[in-house]
């Protein structure tokens, strides 16, 4: 199975440095989730891992090869990336979208084959989209549409999937639907999955490995229970919270401090106290 790691990786845009001298290794056959505040470089790092962004310094290494020295189709046969909020041409069907995942295997001398068709059909089965394959992508619900894009990456038949915020703009039901699908792909088929998530509690539930990014580098990495703590949430997200054990999964669960109804409850308690004082006097 392919290994994916960075060596002294520095990334940025123009004169701005986003990631500086980063060394990480993505665990094979596991789900890795990148977390961090907005603008910390999570998506930038993911794009670099997929060779969509050239490093200013250092390397991304795939299967002991500098990814910048590999041919595009060679990389595409080993890793598939799903960017944030992808868009499709109007009228494109699910089947037509999933077929695009076979592009790395096509050439002037190698046309559509039975292997390509089988890969597409398997991707549709794995994502439970067979009955929807003739529907246009723009007619699907948010969760169905995201599954269609994931099916396209599965048809690419790679060992590693990179996903940038795959649950963005989805309601809770569809978020769980997509994450359950990725969980099954990892546990049943051994896919290495790297994704960016904003919901820390969902990250803890689904991740084998968490990488917390702060100040252009890795603040902490490891299993969720090793990484997610009150101190980490304060230092990485500048947020005070309680961290308790999730009653269903046993994973860390963050309860952020804030206002909301807690102020209403506090006011009610104060009113009760005053009422008690007046009744006593």
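Q: What amino acid sequence fits the structure above?
A:
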């Amino acid at each position: 199975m392919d290994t994916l790691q960075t060596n002294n990786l520095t990334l940025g845009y123009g004169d701005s440095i986003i990631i500086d001298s980063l060394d990480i290794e993505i665990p094979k056959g596991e789900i890795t989730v990148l977390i961090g505040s907005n603008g910390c470089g999570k998506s930038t790092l993911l794009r670099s891992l997929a060779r969509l962004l050239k490093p200013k310094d250092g390397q991304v290494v795939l299967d002991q090869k500098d990814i910048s020295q590999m041919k595009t189709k060679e990389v595409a046969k080993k890793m598939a990336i799903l960017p944030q909020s992808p868009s499709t041409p109007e009228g494109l069907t699910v089947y037509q979208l999933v077929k695009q995942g076979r592009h790395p295997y096509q050439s002037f001398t190698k046309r559509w084959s039975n292997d390509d068709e089988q890969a597409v059909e398997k991707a549709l089965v794995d994502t439970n989209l067979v009955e929807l394959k003739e529907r246009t992508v723009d007619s699907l619900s948010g969760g169905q549409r995201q599954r269609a894009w994931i099916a396209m990456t599965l048809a690419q038949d790679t060992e590693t999937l990179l996903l940038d915020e795959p649950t963005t703009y989805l309601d809770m039901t569809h978020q769980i639907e997509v994450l359950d699908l990725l969980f099954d792909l990892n546990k049943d088929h051994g896919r290495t999955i790297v994704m960016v998530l904003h919901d820390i509690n969902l990250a803890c539930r689904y991740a084998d490995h968490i990488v917390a990014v702060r100040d252009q580098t890795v603040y902490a990495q490891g299993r969720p229970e090793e990484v997610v703590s009150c101190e980490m949430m304060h230092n990485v997200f500048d947020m005070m919270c309680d961290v308790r054990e999730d009653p269903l999964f046993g994973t860390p669960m963050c309860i952020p401090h804030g206002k909301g109804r807690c102020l209403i409850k506090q006011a009610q308690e104060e009113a009760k106290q005053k009422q008690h004082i007046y009744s006593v006097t």
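Q: And what stands out in the fold?
A: The chain has one domain: 4-78+158-280.
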